[in-house]
Design goal:
Blueprint: E1 3-8, H1 16-19, E2 23-28, H2 37-50, E3 59-62, H3 66-80, E4 82-89, E5 94-101
Parallel strand pairs: 1-2, 1-3, 3-4
Antiparallel strand pairs: 4-5
Length: 104
Amino acid sequence: MNRVILVCKTDRFDTTPAARFGEVTFLVGKNASPFAPDDFVIEVLEGLERIAFDPINDYFALTGPAAQLAMGYAIAMRKYGKLRTLIFDARTDSYVTRNVEVLT
């Protein structure tokens, strides 16, 4: 089964539309802070290992607090080079899928 990866859990966003693509899974806890970047990088990398993130089958959802999301996505992109990405479209109240790859 596919999973939908969100960087951190928050009550501000409804993850129900994302669950259509797979089981919603969080990388770090609510208190993970991008203001302590060294610790945050370690938490994200450990989270990716803990959940055995699979960049071929799992989705990375662009949903959540902006700073955590940006840093978490950048860390995952650097580690894997290519991510299956879910982007929320507020006009349709649904996610669209995109394959995002680092260009070299």
